[in-house]
Design goal:
287 residues; alpha+beta; 2 domains; eight-stranded antiparallel barrel; two-stranded antiparallel sheet; 49% strand; elongated; signal; Beta-barrel_OMP_2; Outer membrane protein beta-barrel domain-containing protein
């Protein structure tokens, strides 16, 4: 009986010893596994992540490091940051398509002296675009540049009148012919100076403003009637040789809105048209 009891106790002791050894071994293995996982995670964090991102003009290579790794902090870069650079070259941008209107001493209603310029609102339009630009981009948020382009204003007249050529001041003659189309136009070389701000995370929201000047290129009047068919007359028609004003633009990516207002009179050496000025507004494409 004693022999059997001793043998049982010895067997239980051996089992306990083995279990204790296994437990300690498991603890050691667990520590090793945890250490290995931490090592893997640390190594992964220390790996550089390389991506490509657009800065609006160029593709920029981005290298991001573990922010906790003090040794590599200096290598991280802001992927939206752009270096200052000169802007110079041929372009096709800021294409304006909108309505033009006449302001008579601050009023949208024409005075009796200027009633002959009554026009069809939805057919009196402004068209323009830039073909050259020169300036400086200070950073990804702001640039300043001068550009040059062309600007047309087409006034669709309601009255059947013919403007006299080579006369000062501006004068006209009533016509016996009814014109289905009577368009009075001017074209200018436009030269704006633009202050442009780029906002938002991707700099897609843009606001621009500044002064604008223009030199007269030509004036014209185009007729269409059953009696005469189509004909066109060219003259400067006392349009201002130089005009100056201000503009504003707001847009998202490549499309937006614009407004332009000129401070000087539309016509020069024409006292009856003193205070008559040009304003336009509408859609803009290719900011």
């Amino acid at each position: 009986m004693k022999h059997i009891l001793f043998t049982g106790l010895t067997f239980l002791a051996l089992i306990g010893t083995v279990q204790a050894s296994n437990t300690e071994l498991s603890k050691v293995e667990g520590i090793r596994d945890t250490t290995d996982m931490d090592t893997v995670k640390t190594e992964r964090k220390r790996k550089l992540t390389v991506k490509w991102s657009s800065d609006g003009d160029n593709m920029v290579k981005v290298e991001r490091c573990n922010p906790c790794d003090s040794l590599n902090k200096s290598k991280s870069t802001d992927f939206l940051k752009q270096k200052p650079k000169v802007i110079l070259g041929i372009t096709f941008s800021r294409f304006d398509l909108g309505l033009a209107t006449l302001l008579d001493n601050g009023s949208f209603t024409l005075s009796p002296e200027n009633d002959f310029l009554r026009n069809r609102t939805w057919k009196t339009i402004n068209v323009g675009f830039d073909v050259f630009q020169f300036g400086y981009r200070f950073n990804e948020k702001f640039r300043l540049f001068l550009s040059a382009g062309f600007d047309w204003t087409h006034i669709r007249l309601k009255n059947d009148i013919i403007f006299d050529r080579n006369t000062t001041p501006l004068s006209y003659t009533e016509s016996d012919i009814h014109y289905s189309k009577n368009r009075f136009s001017s074209s200018y070389l436009r030269i704006p100076i633009t202050f442009e701000h780029r906002l938002g995370m991707d700099r897609d929201l843009r606001i621009a403003y500044g002064p604008i000047g223009g030199f007269l290129l030509s004036g014209s009047q185009k007729f269409k009637s059953e009696e005469e068919g189509k004909r066109k007359v060219k003259d400067d028609f006392n349009y201002a040789k130089f005009r100056y004003g201000a503009f504003a633009r707001v847009g998202y990516k490549w499309v937006g809105l614009y407004a332009k207002y000129y401070f000087n009179d539309m016509f020069e050496n024409s006292p009856q048209q003193e205070g008559l000025r040009n304003m336009s507004f509408g859609l803009m494409f290719f900011f």
